[in-house]
From TrEMBL:
<dbReference type="GO" id="GO:0008422">
    <property type="term" value="F:beta-glucosidase activity"/>
</dbReference>
<keyword id="KW-0732">Signal</keyword>
<comment type="similarity">
    <text>Belongs to the glycosyl hydrolase 1 family.</text>
</comment>
<keyword id="KW-0378">Hydrolase</keyword>
<protein>
    <submittedName>
        <fullName>Glycoside hydrolase</fullName>
    </submittedName>
</protein>
<dbReference type="GO" id="GO:0005975">
    <property type="term" value="P:carbohydrate metabolic process"/>
</dbReference>
Length: 491
């Protein structure tokens, strides 16, 4: 498709970092190897039929745990300069806390060494949703403040071991979602052992959700503070925010504007507010009342400024609209999963020309490059002007119906994904050139097809195709699109 001709051979800043990303449970397989403890996802993916759409699990997936050497070599051959995976907490500490599993440490030592040997920069996430099951059984994991110290000890161990090699640490991936299961599923022993005394109405679920979110913030902040003191100037630390960009459908309709604002507050502001301003956004406080936990003054001080820069997993954008009666949240209207309580956040509308839809297994995702450009500007210029720079820590696309294709050439010719990458990368470059936004890095999701949580293996986000029978990997057209884009624009 046509693109802004002015971008031809325009360059990114020399220091711009880029690469591909993924996470431990989604690619490693080897779910019980070398003394690894189970995570909540080992439990969840083995739920009765239907919990994961295609009933797949992360038990084997691409077996990155065993095949990392060829994976890293392939990244080298493809010319990918940085890799952003996550470390598995229950591998290093099978019980979440206590004894270190030396076999897992030796494994990650080797992965890091291999990356360095191939000249690929490791950018590491400490936690990408694979909560040690032992901590869940013990005290309800993220619903308890006890997780803060356990996460701190794990993070400290990993950072101390690899600090020399890692320029960027992401503590937690998308705190908004890492515990979304906790609030969506009942606490009655159906999905996991009963872990608390929660009511299963919407308010009870919301309580769990915001309490878990609260503890992720405190856990992140404790690690970040220690890291900044211990390793001053050596590397940088932040967490990966989720939260889509929401734009009012019609700026002349007050309820549309309000709905967009609330949607932003409840996604981006929920976690971004505390580290930039030291507290949750006012609209969360008024809407949620005592559902929202409060920070003590010392916690506020700990969390404020705890990130060195902003990271967003910026997949897509939405327009928001309101109706006349969606403003007052009550127990009835309260939507625990989307507590902005507008019926409201809805893809499409007239603000973003609709791009292609992605796979039905990722119905939340459309290609919205114009939205990304607005999003980057909005965050750095309007919402959080103190943020020095921003990285796009994940962006990616699920080619529609890819898993039902049978001919290899159709699978590899993923033009809609390639188009997504061109559009999103152009938007990043435009933000830098025309909007004066300091974007300093971008990581494409994902290195190859992987376990897409509740959507299983049949929703594919990979830049490389994984054949789950023979475990071969093959680059798709989108991988070459990504490569040629950076060949033109990176310095
Ligand atoms: C990222 O989240 C994750 O970090 C990554 O692990 C994942 O593989 C990647 O996206 C691709 O999905 O189905 O309505 O319940 C992106 C944000 C959070 C969007 C969870 C989808 C579920 C919405 N995602 N959300 S719904």
């Amino acid at each position: 498709p046509s693109r802004d001709a002015n971008l031809t051979s325009k360059k990114l800043p020399r220091s711009f970092m880029w690469g591909v990303s993924s996470s431990a449970y989604q690619i490693e397989g080897a779910a019980a190897a070398d003394g690894k403890g189970p995570s909540i996802w080992d439990l969840l993916s083995h739920r009765p039929p239907g919990f994961v759409q295609d009933n797949s699990t992360g038990d084997v997936v691409a077996e990155h745990y065993y095949l990392y050497k060829q994976d890293i070599r392939r990244l080298k051959l493809l010319g990918i300069p940085a890799f952003s995976p996550s470390i598995s907490w229950p591998r290093i500490f099978p019980f979440g806390t206590g004894a270190v599993n030396e076999a897992a440490v030796a494994h990650y030592d080797d992965v890091i060494q291999e990356l360095l040997f191939r000249g690929i920069t490791p950018v590491l996430t400490l936690f990408h949703w694979d909560t040690p099951l032992a901590l869940f059984n013990e005290y309800g994991a993220w619903s308890s403040p006890r997780i803060v110290d356990d996460f701190f000890n794990y993070a400290k161990f990993v950072i101390m071991r690899y600090d020399k090699y890692v320029p960027i640490w992401f503590t937690i991936n998308e705190p908004q979602y890492c515990n979304w299961q906790y609030s969506t599923y009942p606490d009655d022993g159906t999905y996991w052992p009963k872990y608390g005394n929660w009511t299963d109405d919407k308010v009870g679920k919301a309580r769990r959700r915001f309490l878990c979110g609260h503890h992720t913030l405190l856990a992140h902040a404790k690690v970040a503070k220690w890291y900044k003191e211990e390793f001053k100037g050596k590397g940088r630390i932040t967490f990966k925010n989720s939260g889509n960009y929401y734009e009012a459908r019609d700026v002349n309709l007050p309820n549309d504007v309000l709905s967009a604002k609330r949607s932003v507050d409840f996604s981006i502001g929920w976690f971004g507010g505390p580290w930039t301003d030291g507290d949750y956004p006012p609209s969360l406080k008024t809407t949620l009342g005592d559902i929202l936990p409060t920070f003590t003054p010392s916690e506020k001080a700990l969390i404020k400024g705890s990130c060195d820069f902003y990271a967003i997993d910026a997949y897509t954008a939405y327009t928001a609209y309101g109706s006349d009666n969606d403003i007052q949240c009550t127990n009835d209207t309260f939507n625990a999963a989307w507590p902005e309580c507008a019926p409201s956040s809805q893809m499409g509308g007239n603000q973003f020309p609709l791009g292609p839809s992605s796979d039905p297994g990722a119905s939340w995702l459309r290609s919205t490059p114009a939205g990304l450009r607005k999003y980057l500007k909005f965050i750095t210029k309007e919402l959080f002007p103190t943020v020095p720079d921003i990285v796009v820590s994940e962006f990616g696309f699920a080619e529609p119906f890819e898993s039902s294709l049978t001919k290899m050439e159709d699978i590899l010719w993923d033009l809609r994904r390639a188009d997504y990458y061109q559009g999103f990368l152009d938007a990043i470059l435009q933000s830098i050139l025309y909007d004066n936004v300091n974007v300093t890095g971008a990581w494409a999701w994902s290195i190859y097809d992987n376990f897409e949580w509740n959507s299983g293996l049949s929703t594919r986000f990979g830049l490389q195709y994984v054949n789950y029978t023979d475990l071969s990997r093959t680059p798709k057209a989108s991988m070459f699109q990504l490569k040629s884009w950076f060949r033109e624009h990176a310095q």
